[in-house]
Amino acid sequence: MSDLDRYTVELLDSLFKQQGTEKRPKPNELQEIADLFSLAVTREKTGSIVNLFRSLIGFRNRGISAAAFDITREQLVELAYKHQQIDEHMVSIGGRVGQALQIVVRADTRVEEYLARKDVEAPSGIELWDTILANQERIKKKLAMTDDDWNSFPGQIRHAINSVDELAGLIDLSPAAAEDIIRVTQNYRMRLTPYYTSLIMAGEVNDPIMLQSIPTGEMVDNAGIEIPPVAADHSPARLVDQFYPRVVTIKSTNMCAMYCTHCLRIAHIGKKDKMFSKEAYGEALDYIRSDKRIRDVLVTGGDAFVLPNSMLRWLLAELDSIDHVKLKRLGTRVPVTVPMRIDEELLNILEESNDRKPVRVVTQINTAREITPVSREAFKNISGRVCAVLNQAVLLRGINDSRVKMWKLCETIQEAYVRPYYIFNCSYRNPQFVHFRVPVERGRDIVESMYGNISGDAIPRYIATAGGKIPMHRSNVMGREGDELILRKPWSGEEVRYPDADRKEYERDDFSFARY
Length: 516
Ligand SMILES: *Cc1c(COP(=O)(O)O)cnc(C)c1O
Ligand code: SF4
Hints:
With 516 residues, the chain is α/β, with parallel strands linked by helices. Helices cover 42% and strands 12% of the residues. It has helices at 6-16, 27-42, 46-61, 73-86, 93-121, 129-142, 147-150, 153-158, 164-168, 175-184, 194-197, 208-213, 218-221, 278-290, 309-320, 334-337, 344-356, 373-383, 403-415, 440-448, 503-507; strands spanning 240-241, 247-251, 296-300, 327-331, 359-363, 388-395, 419-425, 461-465, 469-471, 477-481, 484-488, 495-499. The two termini are 43 Å apart. Bound molecules: pyridoxal-5'-phosphate (PLP) and iron/sulfur cluster. Residues 241, 243-244, 247, 249, 298, 469 line the site of pyridoxal-5'-phosphate (PLP).
């Protein structure tokens, strides 16, 4: 039999160490240990042995050694071997109770605050569903909508809220707020679907749904220092934007189901609903056809899912017919603003195209509130038909600019079949929404706080857009000493040494099969 490992020897030493005047266990404590001991001996379970050792550690911490229970070191050594033999990976009792379980306890403290606050500070639309349902009943009645109206895309758009008067009948608006909205909507369009309006919670001053959908006076008061948005200098062909050699976007429409107050394309989006002609699409497709380097095409907008199904089917088929186009992306907020749009025909179109070449749907969800049972169902259905559903959130003041809100957002969307992809620092280009901007470092701290604390594939990349997307993560490589790098664990600040690959070895050409 192999020797006991260092952890177990240390644990045994500590359990039998005499500490000054030895305290005696009470009779019930003697009985407790006797019972645990007999279970550990008779059962073929690691858990029974763990329970005994954990209990003994507890007593030791109160100054009572194992010897006080009339247990001998030899008996515990035997149990230590037994533990190791039962465990599939031969984990030692010292490693398990002395190390692993302690590490778990320490790690737990990093998420305690989040777990206590997440459902209070950032409840999801699923958790608020009862209130949202009550809102829906009220809104439906006020707008004289039938169930069919409510459950259909045309019904939601036909009854969309475009004016302050309509809005004031549905949510609490102070007269001052209403007046301000009238002033701003002379310049900026407002349109809330009845569904999206039902996510607004009464009594919340800066409700995250209102902030994203209802324009406020700041939007015009801040104006005057506008930096022209990406337009002429990035559009090599009609409807096309291009920063990168192999990825281009087609701005397929300027329409959206809802107009966001923080829209990057605020200058182009929603001024007037326009369908683009097939000639315009044709020119975009010709451009893509003519450049064999282009392999990934993003169909954005506005919102790709406001296009009629027939148009989407045609556009995807055209892209699929171009040999060098290997993948497509569709940009849409519709699953959060009017999930009713995701009908069976649309799902079939997505699946058909995905069967030819991968389709990814890229969405924008900024707060856990936007995930309701209905939007979750929409994302579930989409994710069953395409290769990935990805989220690009915008870091927005008051909406998702805290650890609790951002962690909750990322976990909630992951549970709704959506993978966090990017978090954008809100752009400096548009003065209309400077009031939503969050300092770059705050965003970085929030994103870094996720490492080691939530699932790795729920952690987005943090990006600033400045003529292309620039990752904003702090480097965790603190320095180098000889062949070793000093790395920093983002969750604890602890530095660890990491031997780097041998550069000489790496630069040799004669490796593997090249050596024969
Ligand atoms: C965001 C964007 C892309 C895609 O960038 P990825 O990093 O591949 O997601 C491509 N072109 C334009 C113009 C974009 O804005
Ligand atoms: S959905 Fe996108 S394009 Fe449309 S208004 Fe919102 S941010 Fe702008």
